[in-house]
Amino acid sequence: MGGWSAFVTCCVWAILLLALFGDSLASTPEFDPYKVLGVSRQASQAEIKKVYKRLVREWHPDKNKSPGAEDMFIKITKSYEILSNEERRANYDRFGQMDENQNFARAPQGFRHYHDSFYFDESFFHFPRTSRDFTDNKHLLHYNQYINEVLPDSFKRPYLIKITSEWCFTCIHIEPVWKDTVQELEPLGVGIGVVDIGYERQLANHLGAHRTPSILGLINGKVTFFHYAVVREHLRQFVESLLPQKLVEKVTDNSYLEFLNSWHEENKPRVLLFDVASNIPLLSKLTAFAYKDYVRFGYVDMGLTETSKVVLRFNINTYAPTMLLFKENTDKPADVIQARGMKKQIIDEFVSNNRFLLVPRLVNQKLFDELCPVKQFHRRRKYCVLLVTGEGEQFVSVNEAFFDFASSNTKEVLRFAYVYQRQQQPLCDALLKKEDTTPPQVIVLERRSATGRVLYRTVTGGWNGSDDDKLRLHKLLEILQRDPSYLTHDAMLPELNNEFASMFLIQWINTAYDYIAQFYFDLLYSNWREMMPVLSLIFSALFILFGTVIIQAFSDAGEDKPAKQKATDPPKTAESSPGQESTSSRPPKKNFVEVTELTDITYMSNLVRLKPGHINVVLILTDASKQVLLRKFAKEVYSFSGSQTLHYSFLNVDKHSQWMDSLMESAPDARPSDCLDEEEEEEDSASNKSDYTGHVLALNGHKKYFCLFRPVFTGEEAECSRWSDEDAATAAPSKASRSRSSSRQKATTLEIHHKLDRLGLWMERLMEGTLPRHYVPAWPGLDTITPQK
């Protein structure tokens, strides 16, 4: 009896040991992503991606019909998932084989498979396998892939994205519905994506998905969550609701002529789809969304009596769906397709080959780039024949003659287009600047670079649409076929104006409407976690606004008292004592910028020994104009006070009257020629003394040069006072003149204030480095002080 008990005990222990370690004893070789992809452990991400793309093309089940192609494809995809993610790759290199649900932080390597050794009857627990099937693996999204590929593509087609995880048992119940929906919508052109929240937490947070399972739609870069029961019909309706309204216009006998004739306003071909169905097919809506920038779609329900005339007008077969594409000629379609059960590939090819009018109008840069691409190779030359015309009635016959010529010249290397001069004035000016001509003109051009460089030639004699004009244009095109160098003119074209761009106010209203609609939708379904960022933004904006109003109210109340006190102070004059001047050498606090006085003490540090790359901006003033000019100077330079390389000072010419004369004598080029002639005539006049009040100098002490700003004309000064370095950079030297005025004592406070009106523009040019520089051999000394009179 004891032997039997010992035997049973041994058997139980043996079974337990086999259960615990049997998987590791009799397991198949471990999965190695490096071996599957055939790369080394030191391979870079670029090498891994290159090999992955090659293997995917080789083993894709749609192309490789071998029995093991699907399994191999899954292995390749899984290997790339591991090695393309740096964190998962590091975990694999550290722990070895990666299970689907391995916890790297807790599971020791020796016991990482123990949970796989127990057997549960899945049919009893109703737990099917949690590993992803082929459909999900094919549509897995990564963060970089979403940002670089899916997000831009959402402006051409909607995406349906599922958020899932490996231990989400609720996700198992929606799998059959999801799979059927994918099989129905993907062939129609709907993008499909799957995000594993366990591996792609960054992407899930970016999408705003915090629970599984979740289904969301993406269109035009905007994410919308699905809140209904996961039923195939609901998902289809959800995708259809993502598309813009009135994407496909319903056309009847009363509206088909208006629909076809509106090609001129929208500059797009028209497509009429004939079918017997009350609702517009989803495939037609998806195609219309994909080509919304090129083609306008209309739908004719052949089952209605209101469409019998248009069906009879174009002799449509009512037994099969038909698509007619119209361009400029609305009486006869440019292309036709008719087939039962139209496929997406057929419709895409049909629309893509006819997405441009025969002679489209250039309305934006995107159309210009596609219609007249930049030359890549010699054999791929594209010549753009451009008609510069107008919108009036006098140009109608000219435009029609150009269209007739284009209709009879359909060579692949030629693209015909026209522009309205009023709408694209910069483009027309660039092409007609060398030709003293006016529209209508025909120009043949070839684009050489994406930056706007073109070679072109204008057809001589203009374009009136006569037979002689057509003959001249035909000969020019024939010469170009033999000799491409016949295009002799060179130009840089500006970017085209977008004629169909909506106003800023309309864009703002549409954006605000989208946010309000999304907020209401989230509020309706109590999706509070997803609403938190929006609510946080709203309350933060209200808090900032409320706080700003309170602070402004208190600051305004505090500033009233100093203003009243200043009003009672006596005005300072030129006869003020030196002690009073020293207390006012710094500008008041309201000037918002620190301005120091340039004296014999600060002269060396603020100019002569100034750090390389630093500039001292010096205002020239007098005792009488000191307060007024300092206030104006501080306000003009305040926006530039954030620069660490700019310093601000002022020089009192009543104290140092000879310094400016010495500086101007060291740099003769700083004096305008007209004023130099006047000086020669007035040399002997002692009463005529140079007035430098309101001048501003930008001094570079290290490189020994300065830029000069001369004040604007105030009404009592000579004509020379209007000239400055800013004018010298844009105007001819003959117009330059220099300030010379003997009415300094007559100048009013208002006039002195206006001397610095253009200083802000001069400072902008100083920061750009476009002002003339006047070099000096050495800086004049500032040792002597002029005695007060």
Automatic annotation (TrEMBL):
<feature type="transmembrane region" description="Helical">
    <location>
        <begin position="533"/>
        <end position="554"/>
    </location>
</feature>
<dbReference type="Pfam" id="PF00085">
    <property type="entry name" value="Thioredoxin"/>
</dbReference>
<comment type="function">
    <text>Plays an important role in regulating the size of autophagosomes during the formation process.</text>
</comment>
<feature type="compositionally biased region" description="Polar residues">
    <location>
        <begin position="574"/>
        <end position="586"/>
    </location>
</feature>
<feature type="domain" description="J">
    <location>
        <begin position="32"/>
        <end position="96"/>
    </location>
</feature>
<feature type="transmembrane region" description="Helical">
    <location>
        <begin position="500"/>
        <end position="521"/>
    </location>
</feature>
<dbReference type="InterPro" id="IPR036249">
    <property type="entry name" value="Thioredoxin-like_sf"/>
</dbReference>
<keyword id="KW-0472">Membrane</keyword>
<dbReference type="InterPro" id="IPR018253">
    <property type="entry name" value="DnaJ_domain_CS"/>
</dbReference>
<keyword id="KW-0072">Autophagy</keyword>
<keyword id="KW-0732">Signal</keyword>
<feature type="region of interest" description="Disordered">
    <location>
        <begin position="729"/>
        <end position="749"/>
    </location>
</feature>
<feature type="region of interest" description="Disordered">
    <location>
        <begin position="665"/>
        <end position="690"/>
    </location>
</feature>
<feature type="signal peptide">
    <location>
        <begin position="1"/>
        <end position="26"/>
    </location>
</feature>
<dbReference type="InterPro" id="IPR036869">
    <property type="entry name" value="J_dom_sf"/>
</dbReference>
<keyword id="KW-1133">Transmembrane helix</keyword>
<dbReference type="InterPro" id="IPR052448">
    <property type="entry name" value="DnaJ_C16_autophagy_reg"/>
</dbReference>
<dbReference type="InterPro" id="IPR013766">
    <property type="entry name" value="Thioredoxin_domain"/>
</dbReference>
<keyword id="KW-0325">Glycoprotein</keyword>
<dbReference type="InterPro" id="IPR001623">
    <property type="entry name" value="DnaJ_domain"/>
</dbReference>
<feature type="compositionally biased region" description="Acidic residues">
    <location>
        <begin position="675"/>
        <end position="685"/>
    </location>
</feature>
<dbReference type="GO" id="GO:0005789">
    <property type="term" value="C:endoplasmic reticulum membrane"/>
</dbReference>
<dbReference type="InterPro" id="IPR043361">
    <property type="entry name" value="DNAJC16_TRX"/>
</dbReference>
<keyword id="KW-0812">Transmembrane</keyword>
<dbReference type="Pfam" id="PF00226">
    <property type="entry name" value="DnaJ"/>
</dbReference>
<dbReference type="GO" id="GO:0006914">
    <property type="term" value="P:autophagy"/>
</dbReference>
<feature type="region of interest" description="Disordered">
    <location>
        <begin position="561"/>
        <end position="590"/>
    </location>
</feature>
<protein>
    <recommendedName>
        <fullName>DnaJ homolog subfamily C member 16</fullName>
    </recommendedName>
</protein>
